[in-house]
Design a protein that fits this description.
Order of helices and strands: EHEHEHEHEHEHHHE
Distance between the termini: 39 Å
Structural class: alpha/beta
Number of strands: 7
Helix content: 40-55%
Number of helices: 8
CATH superfamily: NAD(P)-binding Rossmann-like Domain
Strand content: 15-25%
Family: Belongs to the short-chain dehydrogenases/reductases (SDR) family.
Organism: Nocardia aurantia
InterPro entries: KR_dom, NAD(P)-bd_dom_sf, Sc_DH/Rdtase_CS, SDR_fam
Enzyme class: oxidoreductase
CATH topology: Rossmann fold
Protein name: Putative oxidoreductase YgfF
CATH class: Alpha Beta
């Protein structure tokens, strides 16, 4: 039996990178996984198929974030598709970036990044609370950029700081229902988003690895393992925390 048998999980941004690894890990651990994707249905279907091939259950949901009402639309689709009413685990992983410093960042880009990285998780949780069972889990994917200076991505780091504040407030307000809320803060992870500068570039690989005390670049599976722990009953006494998953960057 898996440690998450009988549980239902929603993973936003679940079709690639960290979200994909999280969805597949929660599926292996026994959860029925809603794989929410933004634009690539084929990738989401592949994740669903991989979870099924490993003996799990999953289904894909379209979830485009950035506009008002997107979170409500996600949950409407979830209700129509889920084989089991309600949800036990919400993983807010979907996110975006804008590679601009304070001088280059436009107001439109600022609004876009905050809409996806802050407003969407806020309303995904709020609209989902009526479905989230007592003893549930809220896991927000933050970033080491919330505590480390990264001027070239100032909007991104700012959104992740906001997400961490959101997390601690959720923990305080929902604790009476046995619901935990935690953030996971990755460092540099080898995903498609970083492929253009990281993969096939030994110098970039070495530089990124040197930032971590553990001496390598992180993988999506490294983060999925932390999320799986927080989703499990073993983490029932952990809430309101930011779990650093940077491999010891900036120590």
């Amino acid at each position: 039996m898996g440690v998450l048998d009988g549980k239902v999980a929603l993973v936003t941004g679940g079709s690639r990178g960290i979200g994909r690894a999280v969805a597949e890990r929660l599926g292996r651990d026994g959860a029925v996984v809603a794989v929410a994707y933004g634009s690539d249905r084929a990738a989401a279907d592949e994740v669903v198929a991989r979870i099924g091939a490993a003996g799990g259950r999953a289904f894909a949901l379209h979830a485009a974030f950035g506009a008002h009402g997107d979170a409500a639309a996600l949950w409407t689709a979830f209700d129509a598709a889920t084989p089991v009413p309600g949800v036990d685990i919400i993983v807010n992983n979907a996110g975006t970036n804008s590679p601009a410093d304070i001088f280059a960042l436009t107001e439109d880009e600022f609004d876009r990044v905050f809409a996806v990285n802050v407003r969407a998780p806020f309303f995904v949780v709020r609209e989902g609370l009526g479905r989230l069972r007592d003893g549930g889990r809220i896991i927000n994917i933050s970033s080491g950029a919330a505590r480390l200076a990264m001027p070239s991505g100032i909007a991104y780091g700012s959104t992740k700081g906001a997400l961490d504040t959101f997390t601690v407030n959720l923990a305080a307000q929902l604790g009476s229902r046995g619901i935990t809320a935690n953030s996971v803060a990755p460092g540099i992870i080898d995903t498609d988003i970083n492929a253009s500068w990281l993969r096939g570039n030994p110098e970039a690989q070495a530089g990124a690895a040197a930032l971590a005390a553990l001496g390598r670049v992180g993988t999506p599976e490294d983060i999925a393992g932390v999320v799986a722990f927080l989703a499990s009953d073993d983490a029932r006494w952990v809430t309101g925390r930011v779990v650093d998953a940077t491999g010891g960057a900036g120590l």
